[in-house]
Design brief:
mainly alpha
């Protein structure tokens, strides 16, 4: 049985602007990170989640890896500061 994660769609449509891609330039670092993370073998991470059936579905591991890499590239290493940056 496959583990269900919280939904994550980097191409999600929003009210304003119509797409998150409208906020970012085509050469933004985010696109490189997303492409790189999609190529990574994260089976060691997802294997741990496959065994767990309790609780609310976890965040998508690829999203979390991409978030950490982006934050580290921006010089943000504290988990609390990463959280604040996500809320801003």
């Amino acid at each position: 049985m496959s583990k269900t994660y919280r939904s994550w769609n980097p191409h999600q449509q929003w009210l304003l602007p119509p797409s998150v891609h409208d906020w970012l330039a085509e050469d933004n670092l985010v696109y490189f990170i997303l492409d790189t993370v999609n190529e990574l073998d994260i089976s060691a991470i997802t294997a741990k989640y496959e065994q767990e059936e309790r609780g609310y579905p976890p965040y998508n591991p690829r999203m979390m890896v991409a978030l950490l890499i982006y934050a580290y590239c921006r010089g943000i290493f504290s988990s609390r500061k990463i959280m604040q940056a996500c809320e801003e």
